[in-house]
Design a protein that fits this description.
Length: 337
């Protein structure tokens, strides 16, 4: 175990925020993860678990041990007539796993192409895009109990997946380190092309016959057309979740703002936060080193030397203005540290 001191986290978060970790180590195996947690216990500190840093906002130096998870491995552990059961190490880069699945004709995650981050973080907020969430292909996960250092297995229901939610963000927050995830991927694809601009993009790309790769390419093209690449402009994807409001509230708003988009769900009407934020005049605004992306107002950006505290303050202003105009609360998707 190699513990480094006073390490800048700028390269380890996609917002590119320059905060310091008092201690820093990389865990490539479950054994080294256990060692690092035990070391931290002796120091009286609670370590912070880091994947690709694509869903965090650093607002302060971290006076603790940051453990970056790089546990590797992609293995088919079982096969039935319908499914491959694939166990994937928490440190595997999500999009690399998607590409490997496409190569092997393992179907189910092609719509989730190009989402940044690691496989281990994917259940944390039940990542989703273009009509698919990981709960749709999830079998179980193995997680290390940080107190007992025992490995425990969680099935789908135990994870309490919801829209950008899981039990690991709530009751079990900070209690477990996810070490591997087992996915249930189809042998015979079930294509999902109904969402957003997928169909139109497939046509534009000249696709005659659907395939996992064609869908993946379409999703990649759409994402690249609207989301900023963190390598060029710091960001963490959607900063806020899309809110769900009651039908009455939606009707009330629709009378005043006839163009307000809304999508019925079991809980009410989901309204795009991007639309609400744009209507409040934030789209494309820049304040020094930080701002709101010009193509997608749900994405807050760091142009270079922005501070996490300033992004947090901007987010609060945006939330307040949306509430004042529409009486709708929008909540961050990003994890503040
Ligand atoms: P990190 O940011 O490192 O960590 C996120 C949280 O999970 C932290 O609280 C961390 O402590 C915890 N954590 C990380 N790994 C583990 C582990 N192994 N065990 C326990 N806890 C852990 N998300 C979507 O759902 N859909 C999208 O379409 C999408 N698009 C994005 C586009 C861009 C350009 C960006 C920058 C982000 C996007 N995101 C999207 C958000 C992000 O990619 C996901 O939330 C991703 O799963 C985060 O993975 P990570 O490894 O970077 O996690
Ligand atoms: N919109 C505007 N103005 C804009 C852009 C969008 O008003 O400039 C409105 C439009 O009505 C549009 C709607 O917002 O139809 C939805 O926009 P988009 O399709 O870009 O999706 P989103 O709701 O902004 C969500 C996820 C993304 C995911 C995409 C595709 C959330 C919080 N975000 O974005 O996830 O990739 O759908 O499924 O649910 C992330 O979580 O980080 C993320 C990027």
């Amino acid at each position: 175990m190699n513990i480094q001191e006073n390490i800048s986290l700028k390269a380890f978060n996609t917002f590119g925020i320059d905060k310091i970790a008092r201690f820093f180590t990389i865990a490539r195996t479950v054994e080294s993860l256990k060692e690092a947690i035990t070391w931290a216990k002796h120091q009286g500190i609670k370590p912070l678990i880091l994947g690709g840093g694509s869903n965090i906002l650093l607002t302060q130096n971290l006076n603790t041990l940051v453990i970056k998870i790089e546990i590797d491995g992609i293995e088919v552990i079982e096969e039935t007539q319908e499914f491959y059961f694939v166990e994937v190490g928490a440190g595997v880069i999500w999009h690399e796993f998607v590409l490997k699945s496409i190569e092997n004709n393992w179907a189910g995650i092609e719509n989730l192409s190009l989402i940044p981050g690691t496989v281990g973080a994917s259940p944390m907020q039940n990542i989703g895009a273009y009509g698919v969430e990981i709960k749709d292909v999830f079998h179980s996960l193995k997680a290390l109990n940080r107190e007992t250092l025992q490995m425990e297995q969680f099935e789908g229901l135990q994870c309490q997946f919801g829209y950008r939610e899981s039990v690991f963000k709530h009751e079990l927050k900070g209690n477990y380190v996810i070490c591997s995830v087992i996915f249930q991927l189809r042998k015979k694809p079930e294509y999902h092309t109904e969402y957003g601009a997928i169909q139109e993009t497939l046509e534009n790309l000249g696709v005659k016959e659907l395939s996992l790769r064609a869908i993946s390419n379409a999703v990649i093209a759409i994402r690249q057309s609207k989301l900023p690449d963190p390598k060029e402009i710091g960001n963490a994807g959607s900063f806020f979740k899309n809110p769900t409001i009651t039908s009455d509230h939606y009707q009330f708003l629709k009378n005043i703002y006839p163009s307000i988009p809304g999508y019925p769900t079991l809980e009410g009407i989901k309204v795009p936060a991007a639309w609400l934020i744009e209507q409040c005049g934030w789209k494309g605004k820049r304040f020094g080193e930080i701002g709101i992306h010009a193509k997608q107002p749900l994405v807050l950006v760091n142009y270079g030397d922005g501070e996490g505290e300033d992004i947090k303050a901007l987010a609060l202003q945006i939330q307040q203005s949306v509430f004042e105009k529409f009486q709708v609360e929008i909540h961050p998707e990003v994890n503040f540290l």
